[in-house]
Design goal:
single chain; alpha/beta; nine-stranded mixed beta sheet; two-stranded antiparallel ribbon; globular
Length: 388
């Protein structure tokens, strides 16, 4: 089995890009990834590309060959769709391909344009990631679904809105120095508590924004990196993917995410590490309650205790395990088809020491990225380690 390295990462600024197309955004991310890696485009053997709602937002299906052209590569290109976990799944398949010895260089990532649609149409577009027959037709939206999960959590384990406000405030503070973040301004606990409700108990600052953006990673084999003198100090040592029932009503427990439990268990096992080894994490905080569920599935906090992790300082920038130093989806932004690649790009920068928040994890050796689709019916976990 071949070891896998992240040779280079590229991101666009996340936010509102009204004058740019999806292919333009992905071309920028890919260019930056190639420049970061020092790997020629001609060496790319596959493109794994994540996108969720391009057919709705840009009236553009069959995007993989289009993005291969935009990235300047000529190779087999495949689009991966797993709702908000689309890019995470695309990266996982890139890692598996290189690890299996089927390719030495794979370009992976994703793109989403969302702000070109009115908010109501974006909400309707995102809703197709839920169960159409039993949720969407009954009026369930994702803010409503995550509000159900938050209320179920409070009923099962306790917690209150102020605990969630600490998560929002933490992630906004983390985003301030990040040049790629959509919101680079702090939000106090009081401001989060006073924000208007979206779906109780979730208020405005409990929800991620609507975002445009792209991410790209150059994934290479350890042998390729050595043979071509590529500086790639971060290795992908573990990957895992899990699946749950799509509709919340069909699940055994709405306040837990077994798809992420399974993905984490597999990723840790393949990496040969445990939750106690994790120094830093980027997790899927589309809503603040989602960060709570994620860190419990990853074993960073015990079941039922994740709700106070930010308030108690466990997951803050100077805590034992900083979570979402990029700002997370909450403040960095959430272009759904690009998010999973962006998390791994940010984690790579943090571990390499060239992220504006790397000072908080200067001695970190193990990081974990958690990417979820829908209400975590899909989940992907990657373990990254400093190899050199």
């Amino acid at each position: 089995m071949t070891d896998v390295r992240v040779a280079g990462v590229g991101l666009t600024r996340f936010g509102n890009h009204p004058k740019r197309t999806g292919r333009d955004l992905f071309a920028t991310a890919a260019l930056r990834a190639f420049e970061d890696a020092g790997v020629p485009r001609e060496d790319v053997e596959e493109l794994n590309y994540g996108n969720f709602m391009g057919a709705l937002a840009e009236h553009q299906g069959h995007q993989a060959p289009l993005m291969a052209e935009a990235a300047g590569v000529r190779c087999p290109a495949t689009r991966y769709e797993s709702a908000c976990a689309s890019a995470g799944v695309a990266v996982r398949e890139a890692v598996r391909t290189v690890r299996a010895g089927d390719a030495d260089v794979v370009l992976a990532g994703g793109m989403e344009r969302m702000t070109n649609l009115p908010t109501a149409e974006v909400t309707e577009g995102l809703a197709i990631a839920a169960d159409d027959l039993f949720e969407v037709r009954e009026g369930v939206t994702f803010p409503g679904a995550y509000a159900l999960m938050a209320n179920a959590y409070f009923d099962a384990y306790g917690g209150e809105r102020e605990d969630l406000a600490h998560i929002a405030s933490k992630n906004h503070a983390n985003a301030v120095p990040n040049e790629y973040a959509q919101f680079r301004s702090e939000v106090s606990i009081e401001e989060a508590m006073d924000a208007p409700p979206v779906a109780e108990p979730l208020h405005l600052y409990d929800a991620c924004p609507i975002t445009d953006g792209a991410s790209a990673l150059v994934i290479v084999s350890e042998e390729y990196a050595a043979d071509h003198d590529v500086d790639a100090p971060v290795a992908v040592t573990g990957v895992g993917q899990g699946t749950d029932r799509l509709a919340l009503a069909d699940r055994a427990h709405v306040a837990q995410t077994p798809a992420a439990d399974d993905a984490a268990e597999t990723a840790y096992a393949t990496a040969g590490v445990s939750p106690d080894d994790v120094d830093v994490a980027e997790v899927h905080d589309c809503f603040t309650i989602a960060e709570v569920l994620a860190i419990e599935s990853l074993g960073i906090a015990p079941r039922g205790e994740g709700i106070t992790a930010a308030r108690d300082g466990l997951t803050t920038a100077d805590g034992d395990v900083p979570v979402n130093l990029s700002g997370g989806l909450k403040a960095k932004g959430h272009p759904v088809g690009a998010t999973g690649g962006s998390q791994i790009a940010e984690l790579t920068r943090l571990l390499r020491g060239d992220h504006p928040n790397s000072e908080h994890v200067a001695d970190a050796e193990v990081g974990v990225a958690h990417n979820a689709g829908g209400t975590v019916a899909s989940a992907v976990v990657h373990v990254l380690e400093v190899a050199e």
